[in-house]
Amino acid sequence: MSSLPSRPAVAIVGATGAVGAEFLRILEERSFPMRSLKLLASARSAGRRVAFAGEAIEVEPLGSGSFDGVDLALFSAGRSVSAEFAPVAVARGATVVDNSSCFRMDPRFPLVTPEVNGDELDAIAGPTIIANPNCSTIVALVAVTPLHRAVGVDRMVVCTYQAASGAGAAAMAELEEQARDWSAGRPLATPIFGRPYLFNLFSHNSAIGPDGYNEEERKLECETRRMWRDDSVRVAATCIRVPVLRAHSEAINLTFRGSLDEEAARGLLRRAPGVRIVDDRAANRFPEPIDAAGGDDVLVGRIRADRSQDPGKGLELFVCGDQIRKGAALNAVQIAERLLPVGVGAAIGSGR
Q1: In what order do the strands lie in the sheet with 49-52?
Q2: How many other CB atoms are found less than 10 A from the CB of residue 238?
Q3: What's the pLDDT tens digit per position in 291-346?
Q4: Cβ distance 185 to 208 under 8 Å?
Q5: Could you tell me the pTM of the whole model?
Q6: Which residues are known to be catalytic?
């Protein structure tokens, strides 16, 4: 069953941001079938012309009438914009794929990474909101879900090393500017994070709750349970900002309910969609964010038994994934592809 026509009319909300620009690249790269494309952004960006498939498309101001005739709306403009306009888009007949945190834990709407729980899309028959998970959750679960399906994950401990891209284009620009300023001997400007980003690490810049966990860490916990449909899985996360432009890295420690040795885990990961193993012990080459940047796959390496646990009961991984692509725009486009009529969606997927 599909909820989109074979050539939907598409709108991108937040078209001038980092993820919006990536939406355009991915739609063109994957030859996503469209009847028309509308670019929407705030009033200050309206009137800009953005290149797409050899054309220059003018950005329109987002408003209540923006979704007339739209079949698919890809949102990446922040929580408040999604809260206001995603329901408007649905009411006008559009299916919304939303990158914000606004709807992720709302039981009325699916929270989907196609490699993890894409079957939830099969029941969608009409306009609705589909939530994109948090970028760090996507990167972790693309890698870990094949193992969870095989033997069950009882506990997952994740330490993330998150790129500037997760905080938006301005944060990426700040990191680049700090590198130029440092090279020139100038003081480092810190308008985004209020501290030097270059040559520094610090706790993720989301709000810290009374329990000491920040919002990013809570997202990893809650979204994992929801997507795995398992409230008993235990998740502990520590999320850190690192001076990398656009790919997140994560060190993941797993405790299994069943038994899974290292070689069996490698076999599962080798066959998993969206995963590429980078694990050359002899050359000491493993996933690095610079190699993940610009790619679609989650890189998985440092695959080894956790010797602090009983044999077959624990595994260590190190993973990297492009935050803007798989962590945001690509995941949303893959959701949209799955909503196309079977022949159309299958043809797109088979070509990538």
Answers
A1: 49-52, 55-61, 36-41, 9-13, 72-75, 95-98, 129-131
A2: 17
A3: 999 999 999 999 999 999 999 999 999 999 999 999 999 999 999 999 999 877 66
A4: no
A5: 0.95
A6: 135, 248
